[in-house]
Amino acid sequence: MAESLGTLILVLCGCGSVAQMELSGFAKAQFLSVNIAFGFAVTAGSYVCAGVSGAHLNPAVSLAMFFYKKITWRLLLVYCLAQFIGALFGAAFVYLLYFDALYAYSGGNWTVYGPQATAGIFASYPSEHLGALNGLSDQVIATATLIICILAINDQDNNPVPQGLQPLVVGIVVLLVGLSMGFNCGYPINPARDLAPRIFTALAGWGLEVFR
């Protein structure tokens, strides 16, 4: 429950900032503000559930914790499922919150690509210049950067962050990753945050093109 709620907050606030940017034609938000929003969304989501679940909010983080023997494989599955459910509801709330704006912007034509595309509000899509191999390396490098920093932040033998400030510092790391590695495809370094909203859009009218 805690992981679901924390991930819901992450997706609601993060994807909500993308919706403001896209639907206002960049008048109400910009690339920088979206990255700041995602950073603070991670911080807020982490504060919601850190004391209960440890605030993984990300299957990649949970997998790293499994490899470091911090959680069992059964708990890994529970965490990933909870994160997926939270992200799914977060995407649904963004859809409900901005439904009228989505309709006004696209005329009710939910599209994945093109000048009035709106699927990118919910999930990340590659830039036209990006090939498959470069896309893979982009995600490996960005996700590895996040995981290494999170492990360092929580390492008691490595100048650890004071208790209670970890969510803020992790949010700053996410902001840094976004500002330095977000150009190619929006740094989808969280499988739950990307896959669950992508599935939601497929069901909500964007169709299977969201998986192309």
From TrEMBL:
<keyword id="KW-0812">Transmembrane</keyword>
<keyword id="KW-1133">Transmembrane helix</keyword>
<feature type="transmembrane region" description="Helical">
    <location>
        <begin position="165"/>
        <end position="183"/>
    </location>
</feature>
<dbReference type="GO" id="GO:0015204">
    <property type="term" value="F:urea transmembrane transporter activity"/>
</dbReference>
<dbReference type="InterPro" id="IPR022357">
    <property type="entry name" value="MIP_CS"/>
</dbReference>
<dbReference type="Pfam" id="PF00230">
    <property type="entry name" value="MIP"/>
</dbReference>
<dbReference type="InterPro" id="IPR050363">
    <property type="entry name" value="MIP/Aquaporin"/>
</dbReference>
<keyword id="KW-0472">Membrane</keyword>
<dbReference type="InterPro" id="IPR023271">
    <property type="entry name" value="Aquaporin-like"/>
</dbReference>
<dbReference type="InterPro" id="IPR000425">
    <property type="entry name" value="MIP"/>
</dbReference>
<dbReference type="GO" id="GO:0016323">
    <property type="term" value="C:basolateral plasma membrane"/>
</dbReference>
<keyword id="KW-0813">Transport</keyword>
<dbReference type="GO" id="GO:0015250">
    <property type="term" value="F:water channel activity"/>
</dbReference>
<feature type="transmembrane region" description="Helical">
    <location>
        <begin position="36"/>
        <end position="55"/>
    </location>
</feature>
<feature type="transmembrane region" description="Helical">
    <location>
        <begin position="76"/>
        <end position="98"/>
    </location>
</feature>
<comment type="similarity">
    <text>Belongs to the MIP/aquaporin (TC 1.A.8) family.</text>
</comment>
<dbReference type="GO" id="GO:0015254">
    <property type="term" value="F:glycerol channel activity"/>
</dbReference>
<protein>
    <recommendedName>
        <fullName>Aquaporin-3</fullName>
    </recommendedName>
</protein>
